[in-house]
Amino acid sequence: MPDQRCRDLRVEYLDQPLGIGVRRPRLSWTAAGVMDACEIEVDRADGEPVWRSGRITSEDGFPAIEYAGAALGSNRAYRWRVRAWLDAAAEPTGWTTAAFETGLLEASDWRAAWIRPEQEPTALERWSLFDWIAGKRPDSPVEQRLRPVRLMRQRFRVRDGLVRARLYATAHGVYTARINGRPVGDQVLAPGFDSYRHRVSVQCYDVTALLADGDNVLGVALADGWWAGRIGVTGSSAQFGAETSATWQLHLDHADGGTELIVSGADVRSAAGPWAYADLFVGEHYDRRRELPGWDAPGFDDGDWKPVTVTEEDTGTLRPFTGEPVRRVLTLPAVTVTGDAEAGWIADFGQVLAGRVRLTLRAAGAGQAVTIEHTEALAADGSWFTNITGINKEQTDVYVTGGPGPETYEPEFTFHGFRYARIRGAVAVDEIQAVVLSSDIEWTGSFQTSDTRLDRLHRNVVWSQRGNFLSVPTDCPQRERAGWTGDIQVFAAAATNNAQVVPFLNRWLANLRADQMPDGRIPIMSPYTPWDAEHAATASGIGGIVAAAGWSDAIALVPWTLYERTGDRRILAGNLDAMLAWIEHQSSPGYDDGDHFGDWLTPSTMEGRPLHEAIGIAPTLTGPVVAPMFRAQTLTVTARAARVLGRTELADDLDRRAAAVRASFDPSRCFDVDLQGMYVLALAFDMLPPPLRTEAAARLAALVEARGGRLDTGFLSVPYLLDVLWDHGHRDLARRVLWQSEMPSWLYEVDRGATTVWESWDAIAPDGTVRPVSLNHYAFGCVDDWLYRRVAGIQPTSPGYRTVTIDPDLSCGVEWVRAHVGTPYGRLSVSWRRTGGAPEIEVNAPPGITVTIRPAAAG
């Protein structure tokens, strides 16, 4: 008899996580049959019972059960197990067991001090958006503006009988930690990017195996990172603070029941290390001759190291890290290496990515400098060309050799967006690899088709998601790396098909809520720095926008998308208050006519004009029209959220307010602007009375036809274009837009060799000329959701895939499709084939999901 026990046990969507910060975590699993009931038991690691659920029944199919036992303790290990009654069976399955651990749940749990190593404050460099557009550069060389990475070292003793050790650590900056010469974990760029004024993530590491009885040493290397380094649109420095600091505490549990606590404090010593500097944007400079062997292990003489300063920084902002950390997720070898030693060797990794280069090389002696430059594209003639320009965007690493013999170097405190690397220096390079960095999210979906171009388009979307889901959802991994709310708002649905993104986006949403302003404004990016606020307060026009229609609405639209794909009500509950506060700001006088980005980057408004002139046209034309449309949509979505949460009166009130906004909307504004995007959004958001809907859809189709079957939708309307055409009877036209190969189109990029999604449809001209824009922006990859829903036909019809319609477009122009997505119940896969005869459709759905198969008719 097959094993019927529950599988894939998760806590807060994670597999046996350490250091969770949720007091009542969600427990979930998948089952071998339809669950009629379940039973959960949770014990402390020592076997003490903490919760016995008894038999639980539910009509929801058990996507997750919230822990309902006694309060969980801080820094505790727990075991839990589950069994289920399947398919109306009289007897339950056997038990399945897993584990999880809590982090430090109370502010009083943090006993350690913030400590600051001796350092010169970061050189303050303040640049405006217009400085960046004008191409201004710092006057002084890099070496004069950047500063060394600091090493910190703490000695401590461990008595015998140690059974469990957990290190909790974080920094204002980025750090790596080592115990007795070995790294404490495999994550990089910890603690990640946060709205540090409000919250700083604390990592938890299992370091039991690294400790020894007697003398031990904890070593921490500390760099500027997002805290003090150059970040954001302008590349300005010290946007959170000018000096770095760190804090940690090591919890030791012994077999006799005793515990010890080792905390950061005045006993820590500090010195400069082998990094002359390390900056996320500029790059890092590492000199192997300056290494200090054994600095992070017992026996090292630190007599000339400096004492640290204990600071008064607030520990009340510390929060247990949630989700998946940034890790090295892939390694790609160089596909080709061309050039010469004098001009530089150019390595092509065949893929635009976020990460860094790892070199294995041989040097004739010590002190030879090797530079590694990075770019996403080469010039049309194959020569070196840096496609991303801007203040403090050098993306260049420098390595100085330590002596004869083979040496391997990989930067530690920076990352870059690139496909090509140019390596210069008088050394012999034995191996060149690209190390791909990303938040280590779980990839749960796939899409394949008989058409290689659609396959490449999907892979491009996945690579842009991988490169920009790095600590926070960013716009691009080379020029800005900012958590733009608009980008993830338009891409969230596509993201959920490819990966389990709830932990990752929940952490970002926590930052977004923390950044919300007292008047309800949701900033256009999060984390939102003090410098962002200062700069916006003194700027005008686009540069002064703090909150904007379609961007700030992410506070409602992203949680609703996650709820639709997971059925997790807690996502809505955690964001409802922020949604309501944003709605109140939207209702304030003058909001609609204020500054907004509008349907940003609408192609026809950009064509034939210099960037500095073109960039403001779409905001001026479309901003006042877009604002009330997104206001109505956010009211509607928030009403739905309130209704799901049982807030019926609130939901009714929000629905009335949404209806009032729609009733007051002047449809002539869409026709006056007469751009595709205005009709798309008006139809998608139900802004038009029925008699005008047909007219608007016809006008939209005419505009698409007038451009030769090409899109002319901007940033906010692109996600809805194909669906609006499809739903209003223009299915063949929607297919033409998808298959369009002339610019602007998705397949134009594919035909020009794109390996990621571009920021601008014309980033590479037909003659091969490369524009100075990002080649790695996931926003227009929102079309990937269409590939899953319409081409593959996977259409969830109730939250969390409880019901699904399989409705593939068998006339879309391909012979076969294979796709799958992850659902709360397990993997749902679809394959279909049409080779001239009757179509064949195969669906494999997990128990608990009701599937309806209804192939779309041609037309």
UniProtKB/TrEMBL annotation:
Assigned keywords, A-Z: Glycosidase, Hydrolase
Domain Alpha-L-rhamnosidase C-terminal: 793-853
InterPro entries: 6-hairpin_glycosidase_sf, 6hp_glycosidase-like_sf, Alpha_rhamnosid, Bac_rhamnosid6H, Bac_rhamnosid_C, Bac_rhamnosid_N, Ig-like_fold, Rhamnosid_concanavalin
Residue ranges of every copy of the Alpha-L-rhamnosidase six-hairpin glycosidase domain listed in the record: 444-791
Domain Alpha-L-rhamnosidase concanavalin-like: 344-437
Organism: Actinoplanes lobatus
Coiled coil feature spans: none
Bilayer-spanning residue ranges: none
The protein's name: alpha-L-rhamnosidase
Gene3D superfamilies referenced in this protein's UniProt entry, alphabetically: 1.50.10.10, Galactose-binding domain-like, Immunoglobulins, Maltose phosphorylase, domain 3
Domain of life where this protein originates: Bacteria
UniProt GO molecular function: alpha-L-rhamnosidase activity
The reaction(s) this protein catalyses: Hydrolysis of terminal non-reducing alpha-L-rhamnose residues in alpha-L-rhamnosides
Domain called Bacterial alpha-L-rhamnosidase N-terminal: residue spans: 163-329
Record-listed E.C. numbers: 3.2.1.40
Listed GO biological process terms: carbohydrate metabolic process
